[in-house]
Amino acid sequence: GEGYTNWQSLFVAIVIVSAITLVGSFLFKYTQKKQEESKNGAAIAKKKTSYKGLIVAAVFMFAGITQSAINGYLTSFAKEMNLGNISLYFTIMAVFTLAARFFSVKIQEKIGMRMLVYISALSMGIGVFGVAFAKSAAFVVLMAIPFGLGMGCLYPIFNYRILRTVDITQHAFGASMYYCSMDIAYGIGGFMWGYVAQWFGSNMVFVIAGSLILV
Questions:
Q1: How many other CB atoms are there within 10 angstroms of residue 134's CB atom?
Q2: What is the 3-state secondary structure (H, E, C) of 6-56?
Q3: Mapped to the 3 state alphabet, what secondary structure does the chain carry?
Q4: How far is it, in rounded angstroms, from Cα 142 to Cα 172?
Q5: What count of Cα atoms within 13 Å lies in the side-chain half-sphere of residue 53?
Q6: Is 154 exposed, middle or buried (0-12, 13-18, 19+ CB in 10 A)?
Q7: Which of 36, 60, 63, 110 shows its CA 20 to 30 Å from the CA of 147?
Q8: What would the pLDDT profile of 2-46 be if each residue is shown by its tens digit?
Q9: Which of 77-81, 128-132, 153-157, 205-209 has the lowest mean pLDDT?
């Protein structure tokens, strides 16, 4: 809310969660499975860098840059446009993102993965474009539904496609490509949208972000 001033407790909570994550990471043992050699003595599994996976990860960055506009600038945009409190947006987005994970597989079986990608990207685009022309907090919150549904269906597909490009013994490497591309996208979007807002206005942040997800 506008009167929130207890920032110290927020950062303390983040540090505690990070510390728990760090300690927990030492409790797991990581082993790489090695496939048995074939009869002719040649090893079946080979370590290799997947350029196809890097291409998929690069495309996925467009979605991450789009999401960074929502995560980083939606609240300040609502304040600038005097739309009121839109904090409920993020709760609804999370709920529908989670819900999409439960039925996306069944939809994919009916319409195919490629068509689901198109529909999901379009749904995210509608959610972002809608924010750019919102006149009330209620409408902004409503746009969380198509954005959350699209993101909930699209992100697992990119994760799956990246993992498909690497050997079964390199799934950790594939997962790192997925999450690193997301982190890089958030970093790019963090300063990119600041310049866009400064030069063209806050509305253009979401117009361009919506265009990126369609790209």
A1: 21
A2: CHHHHHHHHHHHHHHHHHHHCCCCCCCCCCCCCCCCCCCCCCCCCHHHHHH
A3: CCCCCCHHHHHHHHHHHHHHHHHHHCCCCCCCCCCCCCCCCCCCCCCCCCHHHHHHHHHHHHHHHHHHHHHHHHHHHHHHCCCCCCCHHHHHHHHHHHHHHHHHHHHHHHHCHHHHHHHHHHHHHHHHHHHHCCCCHHHHHHCHHHHHHHHHHHHHHHHHHHHHCCCHHHHHHHHHHHHHHHHHHHHHHHHHHHHHHHHHCHHHHHHHHHHHHHC
A4: 37
A5: 23
A6: buried
A7: 110
A8: 677 778 888 999 999 999 999 988 887 766 555 444 444 334 444
A9: 77-81
Compute the half-sphere exposure of residue 100: CA atoms within 13 Å on the CB side of its CA.
Answer: 26
The two tokens of residue 14 are 């983040």
Query: Any idea which residue has 């969660």 for tokens?
Result: 17
Q: How far is the first Cα of the chain from the last one, in angstroms, to the nearest whole number? A: 35
Block residue for tokens 């022309």: 133
Q: Is the four-CA dihedral 201, 213, 154, 108 of positive or negative sign?
A: positive
Residue 45 CA to residue 34 CA, distance in Å, equals: 7
| CA–CA distance, 129 with 80 (Å, rounded to integer) | 17
